[in-house]
Known about the structure:
Blueprint: H1 3-12, E1 39-43, E2 51-56, E3 62-67, E4 95-96, E5 102-103, H2 106-116, H3 124-138, H4 143-168, H5 171-178, H6 183-200, H7 203-227, H8 234-246, H9 252-275, H10 280-291, H11 293-325, H12 330-344, H13 347-366
Antiparallel strand pairs: 1-2, 2-3, 4-5
Helix pairs in contact: 1-11, 3-4, 4-6, 6-7, 7-8, 9-10, 10-11, 11-12
Amino acid sequence: MxxxxxxxxxxxxxxxxxxxxxxxxxxxxxxxxDVNSASIKSSxxxxxxxxxxxxxxxxxxxxxxxxxxxxxxxxxxxxxxxRSLKGTQIDGEIIIDENxxxxxxxxxxxxxxxxxxxxxxxxxxxxxxxxxxxxRHHTPEPAASQAVTIFxxxxxxxxxxxxxxxxxxxxxxxxxxxxxLDLNAVAQQKQDIANLRQQYFDKPTITAFFGAEDxxxxxxxxxxxxxxxxxxxxxxxxxxxxxxxxxxPDNATKSNxxxxxxxxxxxxxxxxxxxxxxxxxxxxxxxxxxxxxxxAERLAQVxxxxxxxxxxxxxxxxQKNRLLSQGVDAAQAQIQxxxxxxxxxxxxxxxxxxxxxxxxxxxxVNNP
Length: 368
């Protein structure tokens, strides 16, 4: 399959499938014994050089954290953004209800991740001050303080998470070596992560922050479980996949999973139908059924572009081989080959030639 066709499938798909059940950590924090808080209880004046914050862990342990510089250097939280964030659109949201209470959403987590992604460019204390300033500048009370509290809980959770992943090692790498994913280890890891979340968040926050992620994880694990079942035929596996998807609750996650499943089916059926010489009309009808008419039309156009490129590439390869077999000076031959490339291909296509030739060689090895 050509790179063009792969790009077309990627354009159609909305795929967010996680192979193993690990939390989606946006960044890794440097180990620290100073900041490990679940909620801010009080803070001293912004005018002080060092800002001392009392924090309380889920277990009830109270610790003191000193963060420098203070929040007073920011007003909106958007001053002097680090290079990676300059010119970008802020991702995420802060939603409040009619009583100015915080409504926790997945968008709030995205907002936290947006600022936390600058760790390494900015010190952790600066990011803390920036996020709190942004929240308080854009959010009324009591929602503002509620959001700040959850931000601190989220950071503490992210810092604790690597210990669980360290405990289990790289399950994906282990699966590559053994040929199968250890689903018992995956299930235990998921349970440990769930227990960790309960230490830092209430149930509504867990659902808002991680609900969609867990749905995808569970789907992915079930697909692996079905694939690894040696007692099932291919037809039974396909039926089991469809049955699992049909029983999912009707929401955006199910829609995305169904679309991803359709894309996988589309790719498989396209290859099978082309191998047996299906007509363009037959391919179009199959694609329209799976992904709709606009996508089917786009894929038909890609097929035509690929066929045209294949034809020109065959012509190019034949003439190139003839030039190289004539025994002419290598430099002169390369000049003629370069001229040939410019005649047959545009700038973008010329960049693909080496990769496309390598792909054809690999396909020849795999299908002698």
